[in-house]
Amino acid sequence: RSKYYSMDILTQFNSFILILVRTASIIFFIPFLGARNVPKGFKVGLALFISLILIGIVKVDATVMSADLLTLAAAIAGEIIIGFTLGLIARLIFSAVEMAGEVMGVQMGFSIANVIDPQTSAHVPIIGHFQTILATLIFLSINAHHLFIAAIADSFALVPPMHFTLTQQMMNGIITMSRDMFILAIKIGAPVMVALLITNVALAVVSKTMPQMNIMIVSFPLTIAGGLLIMTLSLPLFAYMIQRAFEGMRGDVLNILNFMVR
DSSP letters along 226-256, please? Predict the structure, then answer.
């Protein structure tokens, strides 16, 4: 009897480890909660709290849990991949915002002005950092972070522990979302890019018709002022596109989770 009791305790412990690994991976990889400036103790405590709630809800196959350590290690690696993939879905949107800001910053003459991003501790363009802050505020205002908390429970229903599989459909889905990141970046930066393209063409025409004018001195303040003006006027469009992108994450998350199981 004690032998079966010990096996049951071991099975429950292994189940908790798998639930904790997936929960912690999702929390550590998603935006905002996974940022470096969020204390690690808070993230670990939140992962433990959610895992303790889920241990009585998630059904784990006991026969699979009694497998050898190599199988358990492979299962833990699969749980980490699940968390990384779900976090990647949201980070692609923020990467699109940073990419659009970098392109706009280069055209406006801010290519040298970089700041430290507190979420990644990396140097990012100042325009990209500004738009990332706006995107984060929109992310929180529409409660998009709640989506990932709910996705933790949904992921266990769609992909039970030790049932993760790398499928071709999953890879195709990630590639499609990566492609959409570039499309979103172009849409965000399009107003400023088009306006500054027209401005540069006009300055080129002026420099040919009036060679005595020092066009370099005139172009810098003009492109900066014009770029900031167009960026300010296009903020409602920016907020609309980012909100639509965040609202579409739930469908992307569910699709990717469905693709993780054969």
Answer: HHHHHHHHTHHHHHHHHHHHHHTHHHHHHHH
What are 122-132's pLDDT values in tens digits?
Answer: 566 777 778 88
Strand partners, 115: 124
What is the pTM assigned to this prediction? 0.77
pLDDT value for 10:
67
Residue type, 26: I
Confidence class for position 7, pLDDT limits 50, 70, 90: very low
C-beta neighbour count of 56 within 10 angstroms: 6
